Structure formats: structure tokens, C-alpha cells
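Quick start: what a row looks like.
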Amino acid sequence: MTFLFERKRIIVGVLVLLLIFSVYLMLKSDYPKLSLIKENKSEKNTLQQVSKNGLEKNFFIDYRLERDRLRSQEADYLREIINNPNASKESKEKAQKDLIALAQKIEKEMMMENLIKAKGFEDSVVILAENSANVVVKSGGLQPNEVAQITDIVNRITGLPLDKITIVERK
């Protein structure tokens, strides 16, 4: 029984590492720039982000989809442990605590992302870790007062000190 629990723990660990690695790759890679395109017979301008192969790409949408997919897998795994009649009481209790912590993390990230948007930013993604927070903001240039607003939001919701909050600007 402990072998099964250890095996599942290893799988969760690998999934967490994959999530961290995918976030690193998303933040490091150069996504194409936004270009202004006028629609035919229309006064409206639309912003489209076009990649080299002609497909639209959006870092914020792509990241959220991948994050949701991985979290769904993690939640399913935790529910399997909780509902497994062969699992020990301790592992079920830990899985329940982890599932609650995951739900709280999702709620905090969503709340921060929405509050940042409410401050006038076009889009944002918040990545919470155990002792730090990373915020990716869609902006053409962050001003010091905007950085202060973002760090204040993250600090109030998470209680993290300012030196544990990182803000990344993305165009």
C-alpha cells in the first residue's frame, strides 16, 4: 500500500515539475508581436497576434488552458485517492487537504487576475507558488504606480512580502 502511495506521489511530483517547466518555457520564449490590422469596409481596428505559421497565438489564453488542464488532472488524481477504498486514512486526509489547498490557490489566483484587470490592465496571469507569486501582465510599459498597485493586490490576498512578488511585463 505504501508503494502505491509513493508511486502516486512521484507522479504528482513529475506533473508539478512539468507545470513549472512549461511556465518557464512560456515566459522565456518569444511570442510574436501584436500587429494592427484594419478590417475590410470597416472603421474598426482589430488586434491580432499572428505567429510565423499564420495561426493566432495568445500567451495568456494558452497558459490558462494548460494550467487548467494540469490542475484538472491533479484534482482527479486527488479524488481517486480520496475515493479509493484501499487507501489509508492518512493518505485520504492528506489528499483532502491538498484538494482544498488547490481550490484555495485557484480562487486566489483568479481573484488577483480579475482585480488586476479591474485596475485597467488588458490581461494578466498569476502564478502562485508556496512562498512566492509571479504576475505576468499585458502592458505596453509599466509605470511605478502600476507596479505598486499590482504588488498591493498580491500582498493583500496572499500576505506575501513584497520581495517574494515578481512582476513580468508582456506585450
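That is the whole record. The beta strands are 34-38, 45-49, 124-128, 133-138, 165-170. The helical segments are 2-28, 59-83, 89-118, 144-158.
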